[in-house]
Design goal:
2 domains, single chain, five-stranded parallel beta sheet, alpha/beta, about 325 residues, Rossmann fold
């Protein structure tokens, strides 16, 4: 289904219908997260807009499962005063509960370091780092790391000449069994369809990373969380806020503003966003509601302040 068809379909649905679709996709994500942590599938690719709780879900589920990840990049290494130049001495190895959340400026060598550090435990989550998904070398490494075997052999010859990997003592070949979760804003399936159509009609050859995306989808699981329009995002956010009392029992608001919203104030916030969503300067997400709630508590004339902060002139 292309974007126009999706928009036409959504126009015939009620808010409750849209919410059912989004919540079904969310349930699919939860079950797939369980499967990837249990080793039944790898990788898991979750596509959806920023700021709707994808990262939080991965963090909460991997922590609750008891996953402990090793973070070489965040650890402290000291150059040896005597003996071989590499590897460095590890002064303090850093571990953390849950998956390693890797966002902007994540490089291929860093992914290799993370795989090496978490060969038998831990998990790696790419957190909306869309640029590295277009790197064919990165995609090739993910394919190697997610073959359906007990353990998978990673080969990265550049490890012996890359300072950071030499420093950490990363070998050029090693075995891994590491769950990999990819969060992305990219509509990978649509880009694959478009590339295949162009190639069939002789308009353009398919890029290398597109072919690897196809292989990743085939090997693991790709889930679109079905928040592909401003309306669907709003419907989901409103349900999330009411379900978890996000604005009425909010630790961040209580720390920064002294209190959370009352139930009446929460309803006012939802109503204001619903009325003004088409005029927002930035795409709606859960953070928008937190920011609005902060203004409501701190500003006597909060409506005027909110208009200045959030709306186009």
């Amino acid at each position: 289904m292309n974007k126009l068809e999706a928009q036409e379909r959504e126009s015939t649905l009620s808010d409750n219908d849209i919410l059912d679709i989004v919540l079904n996709a969310e349930q699919e994500v939860i079950e797939a997260m369980e499967d990837v942590m249990d080793g039944h599938l790898n990788p898991l690719i979750i596509r959806g807009p920023a700021g709707v709780g994808k990262s939080q879900l991965v963090e909460e589920m991997t922590i609750s499962r008891g996953i402990i990840s090793t973070d070489f990049i965040g650890s402290t290494f000291t150059s040896p005063e005597e003996g071989p130049s590499y590897p460095y001495h590890c002064d303090d190895i850093r571990t953390q509960p849950g998956a390693l959340m890797r966002g902007a400026d994540y490089a291929v060598w860093a992914f290799v370091a993370d795989l090496f550090a978490n060969q038998e435990q831990g998990a790696i989550c790419l957190d909306d780092n869309d640029s590295i998904l277009r790197d064919k070398n990165f995609c090739a490494l993910v394919l190697k790391a997610t073959e359906q075997r007990k353990t998978n052999l990673i080969s990265y010859p550049k490890a012996i000449t890359t300072h950071e990997l030499q420093m950490y003592g990363v070998k050029s070949t090693f075995q891994v069994n590491t769950p990999i979760i990819i969060l992305t804003n990219l509509d990978m399936q649509e880009q694959i369809r478009t590339a295949n159509q162009k190639e069939r009609h002789g308009k353009a050859a398919k890029k290398d990373y597109i072919s690897r995306w196809e292989a990743l989808e085939s090997r693991g699981k790709y889930i679109d969380i079905q928040m592909n329009s401003p309306r669907s995002i709003r419907v989901y956010c409103e349900n999330k806020i009411k379900t978890v009392n996000m604005l009425t029992e909010n630790a961040w608001l209580e720390k920064t503003c002294g209190r959370s919203l009352t139930n009446d104030e929460q309803e006012q916030a939802l109503k204001w966003i619903r009325h003004n969503q088409s005029k927002l300067k930035k795409p709606l997400d859960l953070r928008t509601y937190n920011k609005l709630a902060s203004i409501m508590i701190r500003r006597e004339n909060w409506i005027k302040s909110a208009e200045v902060s959030f709306l186009h002139a």
